[in-house]
Design brief:
It comes from Halobaculum lipolyticum. It holds the Pfam family DUF389. The structure is a single chain. By secondary structure, the chain is an alpha+beta fold. It has three domains: about 110 residues, Alpha-Beta Plaits; about 200 residues, Glycerol uptake facilitator protein, CATH 1.20.1080; about 110 residues, Alpha-Beta Plaits, CATH 3.30.70. Helix content is about 55%, strand content about 15%. The chain is built from 15 helices and eight strands. It has a four-stranded antiparallel β-sheet with strand order 2-3-1-4. Strands 5-6-7-8 form a four-stranded mixed β-sheet. Strand 6, helix 15 and strand 7 form a beta-alpha-beta unit. Helix 5 packs antiparallel against helix 8, helix 12 runs antiparallel to helix 13 and helix 13 packs across helix 14. The longest helix is centred in the C-terminal third of the chain and has 42 residues. The chain is elongated, with a radius of gyration of 31 Å. It starts with a strand and ends in a 5-residue tail after the last strand.
């Protein structure tokens, strides 16, 4: 439930009460000591605030507009009373723990359990909730820095639980939703505040991850020759694909639904951080270790997810019916149309960047798909039927059309029976990948030995015990050489 308090003039009181009586809304009227206005207070379900308050304002402004016109014809110096009845003169919407009034249950049956309105909360509440979600700059940037350090440690330790912990403490959802709400409501100040906070926060996260990784490397806490691409938590974030975009888009959409319906977005904030914080940490690790494939791949993932979150949240808010209240008004100063132009320009820029990065990711996704098909085609042959594919990892690379290198290293992990060599497997996979993709691909095959024991005298079906031993047995084929 919500409690609405709005200031109206004596002339408009009758029209406002007629609107409230039409909805069967219980209300009280408090006479204002100064100014001649009256304060009307009434409880309504959250789902009904938008429609009821809109009609109250229309009734109030219609009467006040006619009265003001009559007064201006009689006397030009009556602006004080008109100012008190402006649309934004005084309206407060607050939460109510419980309400006891004659018609409350009827209103709840219409707007809460019924289908007369949806779950969306008023525009004013969405705006204020989005702004309240972003903490003070000191808290925001401090928590972002700490989450980046934790994420860096989790990636280097290959510890998923630590990486998840970094997501929990990241405060990124506030800035993301503030920018999205500013876009939909045509609020330039909100849009710039959200984008600026998010960009500075992510830049700080990358810088902190880079500095932390350099310290760990130079101080020999980790082997200087460590191949960071072999760490699973890092490898999962250096090759952006369709699933990565889905994660970011779903996080933004869930955040918008939570904000617009008044549902807690604390858990959604973890999802937003999951799409951003580990990727920012991976960028720093790639820079510190001097591995462009890691840094560039993680950076593109970071950009793609950041834009996907923003666009998805804005699309959901627009779908739920949130629009600029008065497109001709300009709360930020300047020409009336300048705000809309700047907001539209930012939205268009985000779409263009998203499309450009998406094209790169699509090229990478297509290469990965063809590589997986090539590996599956090789293993399915009679010669390699005893092998089982454990994983296929493709190094990220830019398309040749934008100056990227043509070769993308492929690492294939397969399980094989013990003591059965397959010396030509890497060459075979490399040739098959080149035929399917049209690109030469250095292929590294890592073998996992599999030993199986079948107990004698089994009575019911096979009882097998399989052991897999991971050790440094690998073969590399680069441009056709084994």
């Amino acid at each position: 439930m919500r409690i609405v308090r709005t200031l109206v003039s004596e002339d408009a009181l009758s029209a406002v009460e007629s609107v409230l009586d039409g909805y069967d809304v219980d209300h009280v009227v408090v006479r204002e000591a100064a100014g001649g206005g009256v304060l009307v207070e009434f409880p309504v379900p959250t789902q009904a605030v938008e429609s009821v308050l809109d009609e109250v304002r229309e009734a109030r402004d219609g009467v006040d507009g006619r009265a003001g016109e009559d007064r201006r014809r009689d006397d030009e110096a009556v602006a004080a009373d008109d100012a008190a009845t402006d649309d934004d003169a005084y309206t407060v919407v607050t939460s109510a723990e419980s309400v006891f009034a004659p018609h409350v249950e009827e209103l709840e049956s219409r707007f809460v359990t019924g289908t007369e309105e949806d779950d969306a909360i008023p525009t004013e509440e969405v705006r204020s909730s989005a702004l309240d979600m972003t903490p003070s700059p000191l808290t925001y940037y401090s928590m972002t820095l700490l989450s980046a350090l934790v994420a860096t440690a989790g990636l280097l330790l290959d510890a998923p639980a630590v990486v998840v912990g970094s997501m929990v403490i990241a405060p990124l959802i506030g800035s993301a939703l503030t920018a999205s709400v500013g876009t939909v409501l045509d609020e330039r100040a909100m849009l710039w505040a959200g984008l600026k906070t998010q960009l500075f926060g992510l830049a700080l996260a990358v810088a902190a991850a880079t500095a932390f990784s350099l310290v760990l490397r130079w101080a020999a806490f980790l082997p200087p020759a460590l191949d960071v691409t072999t760490t699973r938590q890092i490898a999962a974030r250096i090759s952006p694909g369709l699933l990565s975009v889905v994660v970011g888009a779903c996080a933004g959409a869930a955040g918008a639904f939570g904000l617009a319906t008044g549902v807690s977005v604390a858990l959604v904030g973890v999802m937003v951080a999951a799409a951003l914080v580990p990727a920012a940490a991976a960028v720093g690790i790639g820079i510190a270790w001097g591995v462009p494939a890691v840094a560039v791949g993680a950076f593109l993932l970071l950009v793609l997810n950041g834009i996907a979150i923003h666009l998805a949240a804005a699309a959901v808010l627009w779908y739920l019916g949130y629009r600029p209240e008065d497109p001709t008004a300009n709360r930020d100063g300047g020409l009336p149309w300048s705000r809309s132009v700047s907001v539209a320009a930012v939205a268009l820029l985000l779409v263009v960047v998203f499309g450009a990065v998406g094209a790169v990711v699509w090229d990478q996704t297509a290469f990965e798909r063809e590589t997986n098909a090539a590996v599956a085609g090789v293993v399915d042959t009679d010669r390699y039927e005893a092998l089982e594919v454990v994983s296929v990892t493709t190094e990220f690379g830019l398309p040749a059309a934008v100056g990227g290198a043509g070769d993308r290293a492929v690492t294939v992990v397969v399980a094989r029976p013990a003591d059965r060599p397959y010396p030509e497997l890497s060459r075979t996979v490399s040739e098959r990948v080149e035929r399917r993709t049209g690109r030469s691909a250095p292929v590294t095959v890592e073998f996992v030995e599999r030993r199986r024991y079948e107990p004698p005298g089994r009575l019911v079906g096979p009882v097998d015990v399989s052991l897999m031993f991971y050790h440094a047995v690998s073969q590399t084929n680069s441009h056709g050489s084994t």
